[in-house]
Write a structure and sequence with these properties.
alpha+beta, Alpha-Beta Plaits, 4 domains, 16 helices, 17 strands, globular
Length: 523
């Protein structure tokens, strides 16, 4: 029997935080972790209801799980009951922002059961909060009066008080936002995730389980332990954890820290950028993965699908975290909001994120060469004190533009290009930055290049733009310098839109303008 579970509403929930600076970072960290843990505990509840062992979890990650085990007479009624109780908890605790869909099938073979369960899962996701019986109970979806809303999320009653970091003033927040801050504070130094069958005052409550984030090696397992995960080394089981209770899950994301191990605030991360104090949100995922999975399922079976899914999760949630945590590498300033399954969302100093995006894509291409998988991405710039949710939505729009343009592309700085052109685009931009910083060219000339590029190859091409560019270069750019030689080649190629440095000149110039902008200067 195959059982599939899927948490919906993840992105809206994770990014529904209004706090600025590091407070925002803490809550993003906590909410992302919460959603991953939610899928784990939902799967544990189903296993407990069916009396299946932990080894029945075949896949778990990115808010999804796949279970496989033996069927029995009351299995369907047990699943219906668990789905209802879990969603009742989500309705009350997340005000309906998150919901769980469960589907199952037992059709004789793994392949047929998986396909049927997938079809049922999609139907279930299309009917959120629908009753299991034929009649709707409208009172079930009426939430309790809001009263004084939480000053951060605005979706739940304010029940806790906390101090605002920048002003020192007290504010009222809901229980979930208060717990999110505490979880976010504990995670960077956390070593063990311990799930117990009872909730106690020292633990967080999740779907009826007691959840504890422990940093000490001296942990008492006790008889009520349900599952344990190693947050630092997912493959290493602690000696005090029974083998049948160990979860090999990659749950912990990378968090930039200072020399004392304290998480770095978004505002401080932005100061590590070149030029303007900006962050970049990178959103990326694998292209046409559903087609690849369907081919594997039909040609090699469910085990091949599981194997590729695990490899993808190992890459996004495992290898990337190791690369970011490498103190000898250049990526320590990148903050992982979410990475798992087949996609990621990261935030970091804008110019570092641009370089990381290209390097990450090379790693991906090497890792999945046997399946010829490609990757598309969108990159959006954001001021560090702005809410991150709109920037993530914009990055998603850019990601879709990259996919709609043919996939295996990056969308950034107002344009979309193939990864094979990335080095040429960014190298040209960095040369302009060097020349501006060295005084070889004036920064104002970049505005002229951008204006003429948009005029010549925009919606209404201006034929005289090339002549205007030639006049500008001849009059201003010093002869015999590398900058002038580059500009002369640009003039010669300016009417050829297929030339890389002509076609992507707007993105090249926008990068250079950002990298040479003084702090808080507005262009």
């Amino acid at each position: 029997m195959i059982i599939l579970g899927d948490i919906s509403g993840i992105q809206n929930y994770v990014f529904d935080v209004a706090e600025e600076g590091g407070g925002q970072a803490q809550r993003l960290r906590a909410r992302s972790f919460f959603v991953q843990l939610l899928a784990e505990t939902a799967a544990l509840r189903v296993l407990r209801a069916l009396n299946w062992p932990l080894t029945s979890v075949r896949l778990s990650g990115a808010g999804k799980f796949l279970l496989e085990g033996d069927s029995f007479a009351a299995v369907e009624s047990s699943l219906v009951c668990e789905q209802h109780e879990i969603n009742e908890w989500l309705l009350g605790q997340t005000r309906g922002e998150l919901r769980l869909a469960i589907a199952w099938a037992d059709s004789g073979s793994d392949i047929v059961s998986y396909q049927e369960a997938q079809r049922r899962l999609q139907r279930s996701k299309a009917r959120p909060w629908a009753p299991q019986t034929a009649c709707w109970d409208s009172t079930r979806l009426i939430l309790a009066p809001l009263g004084t809303p939480c000053s951060l999320c605005g979706h739940a009653p304010a029940t806790e008080s906390e101090t605002e970091r920048d002003t020192g003033e007290m504010r009222q927040v809901c229980r979930m936002c208060a717990e999110s801050r505490e979880i976010g504070r504990r995670l960077p130094c956390g070593r063990w995730l311990i799930i117990r069958d009872r909730v106690e005052t020292t633990r967080f409550e999740l779907l009826g389980f007691g959840v504890e984030i422990a940093s000490s090696d001296h942990v008492t397992a006790g008889p009520g332990i349900v599952a344990v995960a190693n947050l630092r080394d997912p493959e290493e089981r602690p000696s005090w954890c029974p083998p049948e209770r160990f979860l090999k899950r990659r749950l912990m994301a990378h968090v930039p820290t200072d020399d004392e191990g304290t998480p770095i605030w978004f505002t401080d991360l932005a100061k590590r950028s070149q030029g303007d104090d900006l962050l970049a949100v990178l959103k990326a995922d694998a292209d046409s993965l559903g087609v690849c999975f369907e081919h594997l399922l039909n040609s090699k079976g469910l085990d091949a699908v599981r194997s590729l899914s695990d490899r993808l999760d190992a890459f996004f949630a495992g290898r990337l975290r190791q690369e970011l945590a490498n103190h000898a590498g250049p990526w320590q300033s990148i903050y992982t909001i979410f990475a798992g399954g087949d996609d990621l969302i990261m935030v970091g100093p804008w110019n570092i994120m641009v370089d990381f995006a290209s390097t990450m894509r090379k790693w991906f291409a090497e890792e999945f060469r046997d399946h010829t998988l490609t990757l598309s991405a969108g990159l959006e710039l954001i001021k560090p004190k702005r809410p991150i949710k709109p920037a993530v939505k914009r990055a998603e729009v850019l990601l879709n533009e990259a996919k709609d343009s043919g996939k295996d592309r990056l969308a950034a700085f107002g344009q979309v290009w193939l990864w094979k052109d990335h080095e040429a685009v960014i190298s040209a931009a960095k040369r302009l930055v060097e020349w501006v910083n060295a005084g070889d060219i004036q920064r104002g000339w970049l505005h002229t290049l951008l204006e003429l590029a948009l005029a010549r190859h925009g919606d209404k091409p201006e034929p005289l733009a090339t002549a205007r560019l030639a006049y500008h270069v001849d009059r201003n750019w010093k002869k015999g310098t590398p900058a002038r030689q580059w500009a002369d080649r640009l003039v010669c190629d300016f009417d050829e839109p297929n030339k890389t440095q002509v076609r992507y000149l707007p993105a090249i110039v926008r990068y250079a303008l950002t990298a040479t902008r003084t702090r808080d200067e507005e262009d």
